[in-house]
Design brief:
Strand order of the largest sheet: 1-2
Distance between the termini: 130 Å
Family: Belongs to the krueppel C2H2-type zinc-finger protein family.
Helix content: 25-40%
Protein name: C2H2-type domain-containing protein
Main location: nucleus
CATH superfamily of one domain: Classic Zinc Finger
Structural class: alpha+beta
Radius of gyration: 39 Å
Oligomer: single chain
Largest sheet: 2 strands, antiparallel
Subcellular location: Nucleus
GO molecular function, one term: zinc ion binding
C-alpha cells in the first residue's frame, strides 16, 4: 500500500512503501520510550521513525555532539526534547500536575516519582538490606550507608556527605540561611527538623518516653541522655584526670577547673565566672534576691549553702571541731575565727590607728 504524501511541512516526502512485517521480525514495543526520544508535553510524543535517523541520534551519545544550546545559560543538549524540557527551569513552567494534591512539576519523570508518595510504591530495593525506596536517587544515597562513601564535600569546611541534598542543607550553617519559620513566635531555623522539634515547646508534646520511668522528653537526644541515669553509663571522660561524666555538658564544665576559662560574664559588673550556677548566684548581689528562707525563723539567704549552715544554729549541732583544742563550732566561719586565737593571726587592720584584729 502507498502512503499519502504529507505537504504540511513544505517539501513533499518521497512515497514510502508500507510492508507487512514477517511474524519473526515483529518486536515488542517498550513500555515507555527513552527520555531522549520524547517531547514531554501533554498530548505530544516524538519517536524516530527512520532507522537511519535513529542511528544518527544514537551516535550522539558516543560523539558527545550537543547541537541544541540554551539561550539563557551555557548548557547544550544532544536532543531537542531535552532542550525544551530544560527551558522550563528558566520559564518556571510546570505543566505536569498531580491529581491527588495541588503540586505541579516541570518534568513528567518528576511527577511519576511524586505519585509514588500517594501510592506508597517503592520499586527500588536495597540489595544489602530489606529497605525499599520510591526513587533511584534515594536508593543510591542509602547504599552509601553500607559502603561508607561520602563523595560530596563542603567547600567551606572539611565535612563530607552522602548526598547533594545533605551538602545543600549543611551550607545553611555557613550562609546563615534560615528558611523554616515558626508560625507561633517567628523564630527561624536552618533545618525543618529543628522547626518540628521547636514546635513541641508550643504544643507541649513530649513523644519520647522512658521505658524505665514515667518521664517523657521533647527530643530523642534528651531521652538518650536520660537513659544513662538508669544504665549508669558515663561515656565522657576527662583527659586530665580519670573522672567520667554522663553528659557532655558536665565534662565541659569540669574541664574549666583545669583551663580556668571564665566564659560567663556579669552584665552589671566586670566579673566573669566558669559556671552558670555561679553567675546566677552572683546576680543576686545586684538584684538583692534572697530566695532561700529558713523555716524556723524569718531569715533569708542568697545561697543554699548559707541556708544549710544557718539551719545548724537551730539544731544545736556543732559539726566543726578545732584541731588545736576540743572546742566545736556550728559554722566554718566561726571555726576560722576561733583558730586565729591559736595562730594569733590578726588579718583585719584599723584605718584610723595601727591596731590589727
Amino acid at each position: 500500500a502507498v502512503l499519502p504524501q504529507n505537504y504540511e511541512d513544505g517539501e513533499p516526502e518521497p512515497p514510502q512503501i508500507k510492508k507487512e512485517p514477517e511474524p519473526s521480525q515483529i518486536k515488542e514495543e517498550p513500555e515507555e520510550p527513552e527520555p531522549s526520544q520524547i517531547i514531554e508535553e501533554p498530548g505530544e510524543l516524538f519517536i524516530s521513525q527512520d532507522e537511519n535517523q535513529l542511528d544518527l541520534k544514537h551516535m550522539k551519545t558516543h560523539t558527545g555532539e550537543k547541537p541544541f544550546s540554551c539561550k539563557e545559560c551555557d548548557k547544550s543538549f544532544s536532543f531537542l526534547p531535552d532542550l525544551k524540557a530544560h527551558m522550563r527551569t528558566h520559564t518556571g513552567e510546570k505543566p505536569f500536575s498531580c491529581k491527588e494534591c495541588d503540586k505541579s512539576f516541570s518534568y513528567l519523570s518528576a511527577l511519576k516519582t511524586h505519585t509514588r508518595i500517594h501510592t506508597g510504591e517503592k520499586p527500588f530495593p536495597c540489595t544489602k538490606c530489606k529497605k525499599t525506596f520510591n526513587q533511584t536517587s534515594s536508593l543510591k544515597s542509602h547504599m552509601r550507608t553500607h559502603t561508607s562513601e561520602k563523595p560530596f564535600s563542603c567547600k567551606h569546611c572539611d565535612k563530607c556527605f552522602r548526598s547533594v541534598f545533605s551538602v545543600k542543607t549543611h551550607m545553611r550553617t555557613h550562609t546563615g540561611d534560615k528558611p523554616f519559620s515558626c508560625m507561633e513566635c517567628g523564630k527561624s531555623f536552618c533545618f525543618n527538623s529543628f522547626l518540628k522539634t521547636h514546635m513541641r515547646t508550643h504544643t507541649g508534646e513530649k513523644p519520647f518516653c522512658c521505658k524505665e520511668c514515667d518521664k517523657c522528653f521533647r527530643h530523642v537526644s534528651h531521652l538518650k541522655a536520660h537513659m544513662r541515669t538508669h544504665t549508669g553509663e558515663k561515656p565522657f571522660s576527662c583527659e586530665e584526670c580519670d573522672t567520667r561524666f554522663r553528659f557532655l555538658s558536665g565534662l565541659k564544665s569540669h574541664t574549666r577547673n583545669y583551663t580556668g576559662e571564665k566564659i560567663l560574664s556579669c552584665i552589671e559588673c566586670d566579673k566573669s565566672f566558669s559556671y552558670s550556677t555561679c553567675l546566677k548566684s552572683h546576680m543576686r548581689t545586684h538584684r538583692g534576691d534572697r530566695p532561700f528562707s529558713c523555716k524556723e525563723c524569718d531569715k533569708c539567704f542568697r545561697h543554699v549553702s548559707d541556708l544549710k549552715a544557718h539551719m545548724i544554729t537551730h539544731t544545736g549541732k556543732k559539726l566543726f571541731s578545732c584541731t588545736k583544742c576540743k572546742k566545736k563550732k556550728n559554722q566554718t566561719s566561726h571555726l576560722k575565727i576561733h583558730t586565729r586565737t591559736h595562730t594569733r593571726e590578726k588579718p583585719f587592720s584599723c584605718q584610723e590607728s595601727e591596731k590589727n584584729f
